[in-house]
Amino acid sequence: MACRTRNLLGAALFVLLTSAFLLTEANPIGVCIRNCAQCKKMFGPYFEGQLCADACVKFKGKIIPDCEDIASIAPFLNKFE
């Protein structure tokens, strides 16, 4: 019985640690979309947040916008008139 309890606790610990690792691992698409949201907050109507998020999904997070790097957000900026 003690051996079975130990195995069960070991399995539970393994699942817990594995879950924690997967949750903390950076998902490039998620990082990209969060950056789009941050840029939208910073630039408001001058930034096309939906277009940015669509690009994140289309390119699978390979291009991550940096709100302080004009070259990385240039495709998503517009003139507000």
TrEMBL record:
Q: Which residues form the signal peptide?
A: 1-26
InterPro entries noted in UniProt = Eclosion
A Pfam family of this chain: Eclosion
The UniProt entry's GO biological process terms, in alphabetical order, are: ecdysis, chitin-based cuticle; neuropeptide signaling pathway
Highest taxon listed in the record's lineage: Eukaryota
- Record has Signal as a keyword: yes
Q: Decide whether keyword Membrane is in the record.
A: no
User: Which keywords does the record carry?
Assistant: Signal
**MF GO annotations:** ecdysis-triggering hormone activity
Q: What is this protein called?
A: Eclosion hormone 1
